[in-house]
Design brief:
It is elongated, with a radius of gyration of 22 Å. Strands 8, 9, 10, 11, 12, 13, 14 and 15 form an eight-stranded mixed β-sheet that branches. The longest helix is centred in the first third of the chain and has 13 residues, at 12-24. Mean pLDDT is 86; it is low at 38-42. The chain has helices at residues 12-24, 66-74, 95-101, 143-153, 171-178, 191-203, 232-237, 239-244, 262-269, and strands at residues 3-11, 29-34, 53-61, 86-90, 106-108, 112-116, 127-131, 161-165, 183-187, 210-213, 223-229, 246-258, 273-275, 279-281, 284-291. The protein is an alpha/beta fold. One of its GO terms (biological process) is methylation. This is Ribosomal protein L11 methyltransferase.
Length: 292
């Protein structure tokens, strides 16, 4: 179905209130975007950060009476009569199909390919991970996942045990299994991620080698390899938990880290690990090391 976007530029302190007004006036979804390309960094737990100049975008059915919406918004003290706004018609597309059409097989390192489950395999002799992300994060297209997959491809994983902390779609753990790992434990706070991981494990014929858990059910164990592609905040707060999953002499890889945060995370984990050089891809970083 066709849609209309109503875009309003405002100051950060007014953005959430304007977003609430759009929702109250029929918006199907409201998003906040940077109006002046101001960089944003990871918020503290529980903190909502918005740009100094924020664009509030409301999504409406194309048949919706937008003149009435504008008239209602003009009554507010924040916006007022004749406030500046822009209406954009969105092309009527099957957005899920659009995304699927643009997700292609990608190679990581020398051996590993991530292949959408609906596309043909480019190299049948490669290590191919067939992936359908579903509702969980992780396709390999983001630099944080790419950095971890390249690291995995560089290792000899034969018969090693793996913990995938924040498993998402299961992409990292399944890649480890396809590269020779003996077993994977996947942990995530999102039940949808656990379902996606199991579905993708079935798709890759490794379901018997992977177990998935919510944090409250996570097992007491240690593994040869620990993967954590999450965010810098949780990596700081959960350092002891993540470190304890790794055996002495085991390997650790961390990502979901901005390049500007990498040195801090590297120093934090150096208490328990002999750290490797930080790897950078664009604005993102990978930190890795060996347990002392």
């Amino acid at each position: 179905m066709p849609w209309i976007q109503l875009k309003i530029n405002t100051q950060a302190e007014n953005a959430e209130q304007i977003g609430d007004m759009l929702s109250a006036n029929g918006a199907q979804a409201v998003t906040f975007t940077d109006a002046k390309d101001t960089p944003m960094y990871e918020p503290k737990p529980g903190e909502v950060m918005l740009w100094p100049d924020t664009q509030v975008v409301g999504l409406y059915d194309a048949e919706f009476n937008m003149k009435r919406v504008i008239a209602q918004l003009e009554k507010s003290k924040i916006l007022g009569k004749g406030f500046y706004h822009k209406l954009d018609q969105l092309e009527d597309k099957d957005w899920e199909r659009e995304w699927m059409d643009n997700f292609h097989p990608i190679q990581f390192g020398k051996r590993l390919w991530i292949c959408p489950s609906w596309r043909d395999i480019p190299d049948p002799n490669a290590v191919n991970v067939m992936l359908d992300p579903g509702l969980a994060f992780g396709t390999g297209t983001h630099p944080t996942t790419s950095l971890c997959l390249q690291w995995l491809d560089s290792l000899s994983l034969d018969d090693r045990s793996v913990v995938d902390f924040g498993c998402g779609s299961g992409i990292l753990g399944i890649a480890a299994l396809k590269l020779g790992a003996a077993s994977v434990v996947g942990i995530d706070i999102d039940p949808q991620a656990l379902l996606a991981s199991k579905d993708n494990a079935n798709r890759n014929n490794v379901a018997d080698k992977i177990s998935v858990y919510l944090p409250k059910d996570q097992p007491d164990m240690q593994a040869d390899v620990v993967l954590a592609n999450i965010l810098a905040g949780p990596l700081r707060e959960l350092r002891e938990v993540i470190s304890d999953y790794c055996k002495p002499g085991g390997l650790l890889v961390l990502s979901g880290i901005l390049a500007t945060q990498a040195e801090e995370i590297n120093q934090l984990y150096s208490a328990d690990f002999e750290m490797e050089p930080i790897a950078i891809e664009g604005e993102w970083a990978r930190v890795s090391g060996k347990k002392k």
